[in-house]
Amino acid sequence: MRADRSALYRLLAERSAKRGRFTLASGRESEFYVDARLTAMSPDGLALIGPLALGEIEAAGWVPDSVGGLTLGADPISYAISYASASTTRPLRAFTVRKEAKAHGTGKLIEGPFRDGDRVVVIEDVITTGGSALKAAAAIHAAGGAILGILALVDREEGGRETLEQAGYAVRALARASDILPLLAGH
After folding, report:
1. Cβ distance 76 to 41 under 8 Å?
2. Half-sphere exposure in the Cβ direction for 63 (13 Å, CA)
3. b/e map of 76-112 (b: 16 or more CB within 10 Å)?
4. Tens-digit pLDDT profile for residues 159-172
């Protein structure tokens, strides 16, 4: 498991992390940017993320029925976890939380096989302020889900974890900025 985590850190450093001047989704300025999708949407990234995330969910003692979070960042991670769980005794369903309810069709905010009463692990690609995870959690609560915790691919270590914990959520991350930054070229 340690080797897999190290491989994930390397992939994130090579593909997803950049130094420079960036304005984040939160509006904050940063000299470090992580586009987790570049890792999470690649075959080797998915192959690492699914089993590692499933192991992290088990290590946390969470026993969910489904996993999902705010589109688009959480989607590939949720699907990788669901796929990795297919051969276990507790397969997990994956779902997507829309940013806004559809104005047509069923008008749902949550898409996929989510069910009222599901025990859920909220998935996040990158935690900065925690805002996206809080938005997903609110939609899941409103739809009748019980949140066991929040699992991120990357915690930027900029206060988002603490915000989520203060809101009452247990938070885990597969990688932290401090795991990735030393691997960036020119660090």
Report:
1. yes
2. 2
3. bbbbbbbbbbeeeeeebbbbbbeeeeeeeeeeebbeb
4. 999 999 999 999 99
Across 92-96, average pLDDT? 98
Sign for the CA dihedral angle at 120, 121, 123, 124 comes to positive
What's the Cα-to-Cα distance from 116 to each of 110, 142, 143, 144, 150, rounded to whole Å?
11, 9, 6, 5, 18
- The per-residue pLDDT for range 99-156, each reduced to its tens digit, is 987 666 666 899 999 999 999 999 999 999 999 999 999 999 999 999 999 999 999 9
Question: What is the spatial distance between Cα 40 and Cα 130, in angstroms, rounded to a whole number?
Answer: 19
Prior bond of 72 cis (ω within 30°):
yes
Provide CB contacts within 8 A for 42, sequence distance 6+.
11, 15
Tokens of 138: 């609110």
| CA 181 to mean position of chain CA atoms | 19
pLDDT in tens, 57-85: 999 999 999 999 999 999 999 999 999 99
Return the closest-CA partner of residue 133 out of 161, 95, 94, 101.
161
Residue in 1, 51, 32, 27 with CA at minimum distance from that of residue 178: 32
Domains of the chain: 2-183 (3.40.50.2020)
Hey, what are 45's tokens? 């990234």
